[in-house]
Amino acid sequence: MRTSLPTIDEISQAIMQNQPQIAERLALEYLGNARGDETVLTLLGMSLQVQDRLPEAADVFRELTHLFPDSALHWNNLGTILREEGQAENADNAYRTGLALDPKSTDLLVNLGFLWQAQNDYAAARTYFLRACEIDPTLVIAHIYGARACAECTDMESAARLIQAWQQWTQLTLQQQLVLASVFTSISRTAEAESVLLRALQTTSEKAQVQVRLIMLYERLNRIEEAAALLPLLPIAETVSDVDLRSEIVNAHTLLAARANDFDKVRTLLSQLPPAAQLSSDYFFAQANTCDKLGDSDGAMQALRQAHAKQMEKASLLAPELLAPDVQPLTIGMEPISSESYRQWPEMPAPTAQQSPIFIMGFPRSGTTLLEQMLDATPGLRAMDEQPFLQQVTQRMEQFGLSYPDDLQRLSSLQCDELRELYWSLVGKTVKLESGERLVDKNPPNMLRLPMIYRLFPNARIIFAQRHPCDVVLSCYMQSFGAPAYMILCSTLERLARGYVNAMHGWIQNTATLTPNVLELRHEDLLADFDGKAHAIAEFIGITDIDPMRAFHEHARKKGYIATPSYAQVTQPLNNKGVDRWRRYRTHLEPILPILKPIVDRWGYAD
Predict the structure, then answer these.
(1) Which one of 106, 358, 508, 555 counts the least CB within 10 Å of its CB?
(2) What are 373-427's pLDDT values in tens digits?
(3) What is the CATH number of domain 339-602?
(4) Strand partners, 360
């Protein structure tokens, strides 16, 4: 029989040897004679936490905060237990109390980041992770999860900056490697994403977690055969106890079934997702797409309403300023240039058409990706996928103390040179143009930045993609966008229709005022007369051979990553399946037809 008290070292050793019950017993025995011992109370709380007895652990750490209220460590531990219990508000209060005691505690900052990440408030999480990185630039966990939060907030530049030293991080957990790979995919650096996953596959015993991510990456890269080869290696979903992994396995099978156009199988697979996964926006968007492919328009619209409701929960945290009923999230701050303002623009030297990018723009889901792949397949032309470089140029203009677009006439020749230099420096980080190659800059929102384009590149050739407004609005409504502004814009058909019309009115006014070199091209006409329209494009931009354009789908398949929702569609030959799809949904679209009618008439479409 033991005659002496356990030692603190013995209690600690029991925890480190994964013997929490023994650690608990020894700690209670010790505390029988030293009830308020700070170290042993902490060890007792840890032993209860490991046993998943969270309410009891919380009581112990709460007692520690009463006994030692000036210890940030105990507030941090209490916050973590409350976070694991799902008590977000109480956890936040505990963490903040600790942070007031120790404002430079990276542990507290990182835990606050995890807390708000779990609530899908990535804007708040981003703030805490970035503060932790500022205090300790070597803190890898803050860099990885901070990058993920930045990517969720569509701050891709910060996300890339945070993980630029990734090759030096050799001691990552499996979960950290999976998050790092997902960030690389988000910022369109898929080669690095694949490298991280392959490295993880070599070192982990939990192969399925990596294999399922590789399947999803390969599908996203249009490497379907490689994805399909990995599928049989996954365990049967029903045998997997981890709910998140089970969901990912089902989703991997679903992606490849959709690629095979087996939507009856897709519907069956979606029903096999765990209940929690069937409450996500991704689930409802997948269900809507499946209903659409199976001809169930009513089912598709019902699922879409649920999908957008879920997305708005996230968007309201990321961009609450865009939620006001009278705010148009896509066109805010992008008012058309006035004729009076344009008349004040001073003349100055400008790049020639050959020295300027070829811009492809139009409302999202209007056929811009098809046009991009046609030009990218052409020798001498080089596309770079969608990049927000003109937005960054506009932000630099504002750093001059000038407002966009009202103060464009105040830009000096030197400032225009600086803005062009910034644009090309950003391009150079994404794509390396060979001598004589011309850049193809395809980004639908650039239609809202036409005044900036014309100020910097007045001789540029611009291809503007048109499509039946009803098909555009329906397609956008059916799309799961990642940017908060687009989530909010597409949250209802009425809001989306008004945003579309406002954007088109701005485009029409800007083109009338500025008279840029624009080729307006209807998507339906391109599908009906590909060669004729390809010749028109070639003549417009100054090339002669359209043969490479005809093989756009083969080029897209070889290219791999295409940073648009239609990445799978452009790897297939032309088809007109999407033409007039809106007519199947006419009863649901009736309320917005009067809103869209001015643009339907303007573009010459039948209603």
Answers:
(1) 508
(2) 999 999 999 998 888 899 899 999 999 999 999 899 999 999 999 999 999 999 9
(3) 3.40.50.300
(4) 442, 463
